[in-house]
Predict the structure.
Amino acid sequence: MNLNVKDYIYEKLLPRVEKPGRYIGTEWNSVHKDLEDIAIRFAFCFPDTYEVGMSHLGMKILYHLLNDQKDIYCERVFAPWTDLENLMREENIKLFSLESRDYIKDFDFVGFTLQYEMSYTNIINMLDLAGIPKLTSERGEVDTFVVAGGPCAYNPEPLSDIVDFFMLGEGEEQMLEVMEVYRQWKSKNLKREEFLRLASKIRGVYVPSFYDVTYNEDNTIKSIIPNRDGVPEKVKKRVIKDLNNAYFPDKIVVPFIDIVHDRIMLEIFRGCTRGCRFCQAGMIYRPVRERTVEDLLSLAEKLVESSGYEEISLSSLSTGDYSKLSELAEKLLSKYEKDRVGLSLPSLRIDSFSLKLLQEVQKVRKTGLTFAPEAGSQRLRDVINKNVTEEDLINSVGAAFDSGYSNIKLYFMIGLPTETMEDVEGIADLGYKVLDRYYQVPKGQRGKGINVTISTSSFVPKPFTPFQWEPQDTIEAMREKQKQLQKMLRKKGFSYSWSDPNLSFIEAVFARGDRRISKVLMRAWELGCKFDGWDEHFKYETWLQAFEDCGIDPKFYSQRRRELEEILPWSHIDVGVTKKYLKSEYKKALKGDTTRDCRSVCTGCGINLLEEGGVCK
Amino acid sequence: MINIRLKFVKGPETKYISHLDLVRTFQRALRRAHVPMVYSQGFNPHPEMSFASALGIGVTSLGEYLDIGVNENISTEEIISRLNNTMPAGLQIKKAVILKEKAKSAMALVSHARYTIHLCFDNSIDTDSSLASFLEQDSIPAMKEQPKKNFQLIEIDIRPMIKELKLLSQEGSKVVLDCLLYCGSKANLKPELLLQALGKHMKETFEIEKIERVELYTDVTGKITSLLFIDNAG
């Protein structure tokens, strides 16, 4: 059979992989365009598997946003699983897009979304598979532009050798502005660098090569300054002022295969006002902007109609905080009851937990309930500003047990600033109190098969949080705490799960790393690291080898306490929340003082000054 | 509840999706098409639908069947046109018939499947005589995987499950076969297993270029009959 490459991939390679359904590309609502009318080809790359990437809301929005432009063809690319990768390397097949199966090295843009640090090696691996020069310094006039955005882009420095430019903040407006600059640049036949220069004038665009970083003798940063005229000293993130008028697609791709979040994600608001001090999302996605109930109902109608999905999930950082949650939920439930479209409410907080609402939502099935007290003692919860009390938790789980629930999940973090073993033991104590509350329900009335799942993740200090100056726990300390909990939670009714401290350690390095660790990433990839977020692929020893080969001490990044006045690798990035605010929150944290939810009174985080006229309601 | 039997094509675009994926894809397409589905009772209501037979991954089909239950009168033409507007590329409804009350399900009826198989042999071969000697055997052993037993292999005799097997065309080493195999709950032979046994018998190696299921049938007192003609109310 004489096949062209596209057919060869489809007919000859896919039958040999475990899940060929990942690479089909003709799902319902996927966009296929005639190349004749196309001026810009954009490869939207998610550096993880199809199942993970397709569950991501941002990708769904930007995919259709770009494709709604007549002359732009945006296609999806995911990290091929190792079985397909091996076949591609054996047969010299380059990384291709799902829709057209064209090689992405020939596209105008290759854009990566950065959702978590441990996907970075996959970016290098995908560039390598694509046949695109991996380093920005190696790319020439004919090469594609490699761009990245997403939450991890707020500390872009560890990827600065690899990514040509970053887009910071919300992409709905910024993306189209960059595309417009590209159209003009392309029509004038200008040099590659000229495009980057023009793009850097768009607010939110950061070109790492336009900045020089110098270092002090103690390896801290001395300065970060633009190395040419016309480049902003500080790059401000982009925000959409009015979410109701922001772009949201009225159709979404409906995958054939089962993905992680296989439902309509209805974004009810952006941002969070709670101010939990460990939470990066709570800081970087500010300000809070809600969509109106009317807007959401109309969006839901279009999405149900165009997708055929049987479930709508109300998506946000803290769903219980939506000001008209009951109204919205009731209207959606009554509207879709006869069509059997269900509703799910993720990210409900304990204090805003409304059992009545949940029961309404889960009329038939009583699945598990999840709570996130995050810390085991009131003292530590005050430190992290998680304004939830033991009483709140016991009341909530009590109400749940009273109405027949018997499956509760509790999420905690270990290694939080100021934590002692007493706080850690508080996690187990809280677990026992939850269990006791279950046994208080008379035997005939309570749900059967009590299961309290306690999960602890290890705290990773993140940029743009009040804890950005804090050291991470040592691996030994994390293990000791996990062991203590394992010991204390050996009882019928509990299951305890914990995260790998080695992984959290590496994650902490890249979360707060600077430019110099770009080469560690490259080295780790050379040594075979990829899919680091997947247990079966994470190679801790190899990572240590990579650091050693580059002469870099990972502890400098993960376990060092920073001075408050130190120039941090991301100090030239402006997310709106000011350093002054973060400092004051940090100091309050160490004293155990809480800060109230800023929905009631402004707490002065600075986000309101990011845009002229303010953005908070 | 009104039962409707749909005949559909599963083309190259959807040949890699599993049976479970296909079920979900149909549920969503039916919802997009506003087909008034009947829902099952119980804890987790789902739309009443059942497929005649699961198709292997990588196999296309010109004749797949699905029974659905609807709760309103809706014409078969209407269902076909609405569904074909909401189907992803690679799935197409060809026919629809309204079934009599208490009709047997397609799944219970199906007994045979016809396949067209495209092979490319490494050497040129005498297919006719190979097929003849293959079929002359009283029994044809083959090793079958048992999905429910950790994919352990078990030896079975596939000869009784081959109803027909003949050469459709040949050009050098390229061979197209046509076969009618048992398919369904009583006896089921997948074409891949047939090919495994055939290759062993011929002592030849080949690449499978394409397997296409052409049609599914039911056995009506020894007569192979279309699933559309059984219990047809119209």
